[in-house]
């Protein structure tokens, strides 16, 4: 657009005047273009155009001059079932450990030293499992809760205690821990799932040892037996002939001797 003062095609002092008057409004008046008045309009127009282009290229801009950020809020993860599974497994381990300690004393009273050693080793396994489960609860900012009303199995004769111990370890191996691990994996709690997995590996070895002791109890009467329990995951071995734990990968120094 031309400024409101009209101008012709020539310069000042008549040189830029249009002979026939203003070619835009046809007023017949002679008008002279003043370039000093035209230049600010050109600058404003160029600045406005630059701003439009910048907005088109960068998108919305926050008030502070930084690009607007999308809303990244995430709904809190639901882990209630995992917490309950950890609590249940914790108190089961505590209850089983208590039974094994009492069964060890009973075996000592009956003169079955080898079985007493195994029961003490089993109690140590459950203590490691309970500690790992408690730690997993702490990392989830959850408490251990209250112990359920289920009482520990009654301690009887050693032969019967071995049968009870086999049932406890089998239930943990086949039902309780696999179900708990599935819950933790479903809720995306990897650490809890790992703890359940490691505990199950310990229960597998306990079942084998309890069955052997039940079948060969007469041979287990002679003397104490040495067992080695991993302090990290609770894996049980009868001979320390390994370089590292097959469950948690710790070295042989991580195993504690129990007899």
Would you kindly provide a written description of the structure presented here, covering whatever features stand out?
The protein is mainly alpha-helical and 259 residues long. It folds into two domains: 1-52, no CATH class; 80-224, Up-down Bundle (Ferritin), CATH 1.20.1260. It is built from five helices and three strands. A three-stranded antiparallel sheet has the order 2-1-3. Helix 2 (80-109) runs antiparallel to helix 3, helix 2 (80-109) runs antiparallel to helix 4 (158-186) and helix 4 runs antiparallel to helix 5 (190-215).
Can you describe this structure in just a few lines?
The protein has 259 residues and is mostly helical. The protein is built from five helices and three strands. α4 (158-186) packs antiparallel against α5 (190-215).
Topology:
Blueprint: H1 35-58, H2 80-109, H3 113-139, H4 158-186, H5 190-215, E1 227-230, E2 236-237, E3 255-258
Features:
about 260 residues; mainly alpha; Ferritin; 2 domains; 3-stranded antiparallel sheet; 5 helices; 3 strands; about 5% strand
Strand content: under 5%
In what order do the strands lie side by side in the largest sheet?
Answer: 2-1-3
Find the CATH topology of the largest domain: Ferritin
Q: How would you state the average pLDDT, rounded?
A: 82
Q: How many alpha or pi helices?
A: 5
Order of helices and strands, N to C? HHHHHEEE
Described by the principal axes of the CA atoms, the overall outline is globular
Report the strand count.
3
CATH superfamily of the largest domain: Ferritin, core subunit, four-helix bundle
Helix content: 40-55%
Biggest beta sheet attributes: 3 strands, antiparallel
Task: Tell me the count of domains.
Answer: 2
Judged by helices, strands and strand pairing, the structural class is: mainly alpha
CATH classification, class level of the largest domain: Mainly Alpha
